[in-house]
Each structure stands twice: as C-alpha cells, then as structure tokens.
UniProtKB/TrEMBL annotation:
Residues passing through the membrane, by range: none
Gene3D superfamilies associated with the record: Structural Genomics, Unknown Function 30-nov-00 1gh9 Mol_id (3.90.820.10)
Native source species: Salinispora arenicola
Chain ranges of the MbtH-like domain: 1-51
One GO cellular component, as annotated: cytosol
PANTHER family found in the cross-reference section: ENTEROBACTIN BIOSYNTHESIS PROTEIN YBDZ
GO BP terms: siderophore biosynthetic process
Protein's recorded name: MbtH protein
Length: 69
C-alpha cells in the first residue's frame, strides 16, 4: 500500500509555531500540539494542510521579521 492510499483516519494538528502535521485518529496528540478540527484519510488531511499552511516559516520567525521592519 502506498502512503497516498492509506485509508486510516487522521486529524490535522498544529503547534504553537503554527506548523501543521497529521496525527493518527485514536492516538493521544503530543504535548504542544492541538487538533484544528479537520480529520479524514491521509490524502485529505495533507490536502487541507496544503490549503491552509501557505507560509511555512514558524510563527516566531514571521513575527521577528515583521518587527524588523
């Protein structure tokens, strides 16, 4: 089975730096991460992340750069 064909359910998670990932349904989300309310198969979750995570820089770096002018 290829990764793109993975039928298991996943949740989209995000950390405090606004970095996204997927996490298997039924597994405890690691400390520092929280669910964003989107779930589905692997491909659907990764497609959702592609839509919403448009700036891959960590939040702290974006804020620092914005403060630099």
């Amino acid at each position: 089975m290829e990764e793109s064909e993975d039928p298991r359910p996943y949740h989209v998670v995000v950390n405090d730096e606004e970095q996204y990932s997927i996490w298997p349904d039924g597994s405890e989300v690691p400390a520092g991460w929280r669910m964003v309310g989107f779930s589905g198969d692997r491909a659907s979750c990764l497609a959702h992340i592609d839509e919403v995570w448009t700036d891959l820089r960590p939040r702290g770096l974006r804020e620092w750069l914005a403060a630099q002018g």
